[in-house]
Design goal:
The protein folds into two domains: 6-82 and 160-268, Rossmann fold (3-Layer(aba) Sandwich); 89-157, no CATH class. The protein has seven helices and ten strands. It has helices spanning 51-59, 98-108, 113-126, 142-154, 172-189, 200-206, 242-268; strands at residues 6-16, 24-35, 40-44, 66-71, 74-75, 83-86, 160-164, 192-196, 209-213, 221-226. The structure holds adenosine-5'-triphosphate. It holds the Pfam family ABC_tran.
């Protein structure tokens, strides 16, 4: 069997507590997750449990207190250069137009400007932004900015894509369009994806596998489900598939108690 694209083994992350500098807070404890090349894995869990922390460890942005990270079998040191990231917030440079934003990653990698521009045009077309090539971020809608961010992530041709609630700020219709676009691109490129979401429907609709995290402290993986729904999928239509309902119930049975625990903790803060 081939090496996982991303292996997170027995990851523990302990922070100085935000509430009391004399205390420590262990967000993750012994969390293990392997993602195969080309596999789409979503991680769901209660609010504040450690989803972003896990993703940041995989991105090489955060060194775990214990445990190991491997990328295609090689120990990760520093930033994960085989990964592209798409986060919740805005990542476009306001002083650059759509095309200048999309081509920026290639320029920084010293790709000749004309080649970078041609590839950026191609990606803008793929994400439905060929009409907005010269628009600046403030001239684009939230959905258009997300499309530009997707092109910005994909143009570097990463082998692993890390997404942290990328569409949570979008209205439901735009969100579903973007989810379908991501699936279409993923089907054509088959990169490994680690997708973080609060939304169980989104996780099931998109993924090959859904992994469930416990409430913190000491968050770890408490269950995982293979999503055996047929592909290609339309994220809106797949929700009416009887198997979707079965999977949703089975996962929610595991997740519910953790969500309640997480909610309780938030109320106490
Ligand atoms: N740098 C840090 N210093 C102190 N505590 C931190 C730090 N980063 C994360 N934490 C704590 O670790 C826990 C997990 O945070 P994280 O952001 O990973 O959770 P999450 O599941 O992504 O949250 P959400 O569902 O709200 O997006 C939280 O209690 C958070 O306050």
């Amino acid at each position: 069997m081939s090496e996982p694209a991303l292996s997170l083994d027995k990851i523990t992350c302990t922070f100085v507590s935000r509430d009391n500098k004399n205390e420590k807070y262990t967000a993750l404890r012994d969390a293990t997750l392997h993602i195969a090349p080309g596999e789409f894995v979503s991680v769901v869990g209660p609010t504040g449990c450690g989803k972003s922390t896990l993703l940041n460890v995989g991105a090489g942005l955060l060194e775990p207190s214990a445990g190991s990270v491997r990328v295609f079998g090689q120990p990760l040191k520093g930033i994960n250069h085989r990964a592209g990231y798409m986060f919740q917030g805005e990542a476009l440079m306001p002083w650059r137009s759509a095309i200048e934003n999309v081509m920026a990653g290639l320029e920084f990698a010293n790709v000749p400007k004309e080649q970078a521009r041609a590839q950026a045009m191609d990606w803008l077309q793929r994400v439905g932004l060929s009409h907005a090539v010269n628009k600046y971020p403030h001239q684009m809608s939230g959905g258009m900015r997300k499309r530009a961010m997707l092109a910005q992530t994909m143009i570097r041709d990463p082998d692993i894509i890390l997404m942290d609630e990328p569409f949570s700020a979008l209205d439901i219709q735009t969100r579903q369009l973007m989810e379908n676009e991501v699936l279409e691109i993923w089907m054509s490129q088959r990169k490994a994806v680690l997708f973080i979401t609060h939304d169980l429907d989104e996780a099931i609709a998109m993924s090959d596998r859904v992994v469930i995290l416990s409430a913190g402290p000491g968050t770890h993986i408490i269950g995982e489900f293979k999503i055996d729904l047929p592909r290609p999928r339309d994220v809106a239509e797949v929700r009416s598939h009887p198997r979707f309902t079965e999977l949703h119930k089975a996962i929610w049975d595991v997740l519910r108690e953790e969500v309640l625990k997480g909610y309780d903790q938030q109320k106490r803060v």
